[in-house]
Amino acid sequence: MRVPISWLREFVDIPLDVTHEQVHAALVKVGFEEEDVHTFDLSGPIVVGRVLSFESEPQSNGKTINWCQVDVGEAEPRGIVCGAHNFAVGDKVVVSLPGAILPGPFPIAARTTYGHVSDGMMASARELGMGEEHDGILLLKNLGLDPVIGAEAVPLLGLDDFAVEINVTPDRGYGFSIRGIAREYAHSSGATFRDPALAGTVEAGHGFSVTVDDDAPIRGHVGASVFVTRAVRGVDATSPTPPWMVARLGLAGIRSISLTVDITNYVMLELGQPIHAYDLDKISGGIVVRRAGPGETLTTLDGKVRALVEEDLLITDASGPIGLAGVMGGASTEIDSSSTNVLVEAANFDPTSIARSARRHKLPSEASRRFERGVDPAVAPVAAARVVNLLVELGGGTADELGSVLDSSAVREPIELPTGYVASLIGVDFTADDVATSLVEIGCAVANISSGLSVTPPTWRPDLTDRATLAEEVVRIVGYDRIPSVLPVAPPGRGLTRQQRLRRSAASSLASAGLTEVLAYPFVSQASNDLFGSPAEGPVAAMKLANAIDSEAAWMRTSLLPGLISVSRRNLSRGLTDLALFEVGTVFLPQAGVSYGIGELPAGDEPPSSDVLDELRASIPPQPWHVAALFVGDAVARQPGQTAIHRGLSDVIGAAQHLAATLASPLTVATGIHKAMHPGRTAELRSGDRVIGYAGELLPSLAAEFDLPRVVAVLELDLDALIDLGATEVVPTPIVSFPAATQDVTLVVAESVRAGELLALLVEGAGALLENVVLVDDYRGSGIPDGSKSLTFALRFRATDRTLTAREATQAKAAAVALAEARVGAVLRE
Questions:
Q1: Are residues 397 and 312 in the same domain?
Q2: Are residues 563 and 687 in the same domain?
Q3: Please, which residues have CB within 8 angstroms of residue 81's CB and are 6 or more apart in sequence?
Q4: In the β-sheet with 741-750, what is the strand arrangement from edge to edge?
Q5: Alpha carbon of residue 592 to chain centroid
Q6: Which of 55, 240, 377, 604 is most exposed, with the fewest beta carbons within 10 Å of its own?
Q7: Helices 259-271 and 243-251: crossing angle, nearest 10°?
Q8: Residue 669 within any structural domain of the chain
Q9: In which residue ranges of the chain is pLDDT below 50?
Q10: pLDDT in tens, 525-581
Q11: How many domains does the chain have?
């Protein structure tokens, strides 16, 4: 909203030397946002002149110029070259003398042109920033002005004004008027406010038929609650708009069109009530406000034929639609230069209807912007009377008794404001006088009742609907500076939980290892859940969305792998062939036999009961945190002297072991089976007796189906389980300076015995002296009985307080072999 200061000053006392910074600061204090400042950007000598004589001189370029002698109140006239031809001897004009600067900026200087020294410039309205029209130079007689020669033209034309621009929030529609801003400035500065809605008398017209026939109200609200009409006859539509009005409209961002249209726009800006003017002689019968019928069309003022829908609210007469209510008028009843009799309309329309029509027809307008935010229903008769008075004063018209008043607007209901409520909500001790005075200041009617106050909001504040909104007004008027700036103090013992810290550690460790973290959508197809949500064949229970954005991805994920595969496909399609990705997130695992969902929720602002809250909590399925990783391409690219090292199963197993080490959680890797992974290249990840994840390479057929390379290594772990099974406290391993003793052992076991199981038995049997053990060979062939395999392990022993002897290391190895022999029948291979 742009607010010209001279206009604002009519309704509130503002110092003559006020700056735009001071005005902005005052409005910001009461909750508006500062946007910009607008001026006419004029400076230097710009005066009134009179044409004494001129000579037309044809030029070789086909153009004819006028060499003029212009009296500007000096001893000698000035010679000025002018290309316009719309003036005559004796006409008074605006002359920009050398040293003046016009909008652009366009500096004026004496210069030689067309064989003459032009000592200034006779200016047009556009060159002065008064509008876009350029029909020649500005003739002051066309504005009804006859000023003294040599007088300053800038204040004469109202061009010494400036406007502040503020942002008005959607809930404060009253701010789209000079009336509303003047009231708010008064709240901020304490200056006296003069309500223009209370100025003068308001006479009601009668005899003009207006009917509201809305049998399809939106949300129960009838399309029009107020409809006021007044008639003015004998208006001279060609009368010029006075310069002060043109200047104010221009600063407010609205161009001057014609006197009648300018007056309706002026009153709209002044009072916040959109006005429409019809050519009374073009209206057939009375007016009916109704919804559009099937197949109806309307030619609007912009010349476009609009196909109407049955929800559109229309202004109609006996001939059909003559306007799209609250949005734009129709061309059939448009005011033109021949119009003499004018019907003025001031109405109050349903905000929802207007907002929908404006968006549906892509017709945002100053009127619709106000209606959809709420217009004061009580100001319509005042606005209509204001337009009538200006048409009489400036257009030479005569007010007619013809008109109508229809008012079915609802009476505002009082709101109970208990004693102490404002202080308890805001956290500041407001006195009873602070509360009552603030509410009276914004226009509320306040009465004392036993529990506190009964407050009836004013008609121009539809946003005041409950005690909380009243409390906001109190603190806004008293001052936001009354609210202390106190930072909350975190209570002792709070912070991240153990699970939160370790989840962050897990993500940080994978990122530090060179993987890239991604976030994928949690919405997947049921086929993806069935494929990755369980290692076994068959469908997987999953939660389906009631309002899915994509019908093909209407299920909540039971695995992180579909998201990683989608991300990798997108990156591969863009030429990124070497990827190491991971994601930490929740999956959604409904339990079999449990019904999830809830019945009816409370309507509006009614809080849910404890039973409903319990039902809501029970309707949420378990959402454990998982971590997943995907590797594709090369870990080391091919280069001179180095062959490429491809990513595969060892990378995902290494990532799992890295995570386990980070979280101090035991992890056993064993051969596993997963329906989405390659047989023989799938690992089952265990912590104790519990399976907490899988690592492996995707089936080549699946990789091809997803447009991925043949080898795609994936990993998914139950991160919550890995954290829960880990040590509560990580004890760092001390650095030991004593030398290690290394020995190898080769054991023959049945093929059904897993290498990981045998390794765990060696660790258990060797005892505390065993520092590390690793599988170095798996042999099956000649010399090994059928159904058996030979596994070789490298063992490293070390003591923390002494140098081990070979005998001690051998005894520890023998104990490990003995335990393996007892448990799984391992035989030491010679």
A1: yes
A2: yes
A3: 65, 66, 67, 68, 113, 114, 116, 118
A4: 770-779, 788-797, 741-750, 827-828
A5: 40
A6: 604
A7: 50
A8: yes
A9: none
A10: 999 999 999 999 889 999 888 888 898 999 999 999 999 999 999 999 999 999 999
A11: 6
